[in-house]
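Our working data are protein records whose layout never changes between entries. The record below serves as our worked example for the rest of this section:
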Amino acid sequence: MYLEVMYSAKLMSSTSFGLCAGVKYRRVAKSVEVTSTLVFSRSVSQWITEYGQQKHSPKRHAFWRNIPLSAMSRAIRHASTTVVRAAAQSTLDPSETKKFQLLANKWWDVQGEFAPLHSMNDLRVPFIRCVLVDNLLNVHSSRQLGRPLSGIRILDVGCGGGLLTEPLGRLGADVLGIDPVEDSIRTAELHGSFDPALMERVQYRACTLEELSEEEAEGFDAVVASEVVEHLADLDTFACCCHQVLKPGGSLFITTINKTNLSYALGIVAAERILRIVPAGTHDWEKFISPVDLERLLESSGLFVESVRGMLYNPVTGSWSWTESTAINYALHAVKQREEPPPDCAQSPAAEAHAGEPDPGAGGAPGVGAGHH
């Protein structure tokens, strides 16, 4: 440890841009680990060993003088920024992926671990259908009998085995289901293959939302993320990517769990540990989010919440119902404003200064009438 501290102190005093003296040692060591690999192809331990061997040597100072400090400084700054950026721009949580990898072949067991999701379709499918029919009725005038969502393109984020993807496809929508767990995608494709007519409208892809957003800008009329956000690593990236893939006026549908004492007692203690409705460890209470916080996060990315409804699960009957309380589960509908925000979801100071001013040619304030022509 002594040699590590000495090495970090030497590095901090030598780099051209100067690391702040208050930076914790662990953060410095991480940057050095990445930098040493990038620049010198040697690990921190190798640096420490070599420094220890030479600290009493006459060549000690020559050793440090030969280090290209400017290059090292740039590399450390780049490596640190890259590590932070990579972590901040990924919705994928490897621990969550591992959980669902173990359950990938159980999606269509209506009596198994995903039974509550099967019964949740009784609420979420009509909810999505009614909103889309009302909001997009004038946009997609070509309706087919029995297929009210025909002509509408929907992205199902975290689709799993296709439990929600298939019903939306049967309503006539063109649906793309994405999930980072390849085995879940294979399960979804296998189940959908038994209905050839469904295969024409439903497709699946093993990828993350941020990967898809790079190639599907404004490609969807609606995005659905049902029981997903509580499993993501970065909700800011999630919101930004949803905004990016949605068409102006498009809808975002989310169902998730509120962050309350009651949700912990019923959603984790009762559901996972006592009643065993879902496998233990399925949820992390720290990842739950309240409707207020979720609304604030979405609006910062240009997605404006239009409705929030409480949901209640009855473990005795295995059914869901709407409720006025959002203390446990809730459903949310948001709309992407029709006025074009910056594509990176970040406004310049000048843009922020004019954000609240109405568009002279729009006849109203931004966001009014979103979802309708």
In short: Confidence is low (pLDDT under 50) at residues 1-88, 348-373. The beta strands are 153-157, 174-178, 202-205, 220-226, 246-257, 303-314, 319-323, 329-336.
